[in-house]
Sequence to fold (146 residues):
Amino acid sequence: MRVLLQRVKKASVTVDGEIVGAIDQGFVALVGVGHGDGEDQAQWLAQKVAGLRVFEDAEGKFNLSIQDVGGALLVVSQFTLYADARKGRRPSFVDAAPPEVAEPLVERFAEMLRNEGLEVEMGVFGAMMLVEIHNDGPVTIWLERD
Fold:
């Protein structure tokens, strides 16, 4: 399971011209699920995201977590995080879990974040989404748990 985490000032997801999720300060979590991923990977990633200290304190140091700053999360499923572009010009997505496996695990990941006391908004699984991200810093971190 992979999460591309971006610290944001604000972010939103629009589907068919309608905003389906929006946050102010916090994280956008682009989430990919691979074959064999399950509850253990989701739990580890949720705890890592909740406790990751990448927000500045009064001295400008990365000492604060999303919980410390009262931030929110926008979780967006992203099977393309499992793209393999080593051969040819068209990426392969065979390493991405099928939708019937990935969708419930992305939902479970969001639930685990909520259980950590975080506000969580979501994109729409499988939809063509317009994701607006105001990356803060920019701070972008790749998290992965095999």
Summary: DSSP finds two helices and eight strands in the chain. The mean pLDDT is 97.
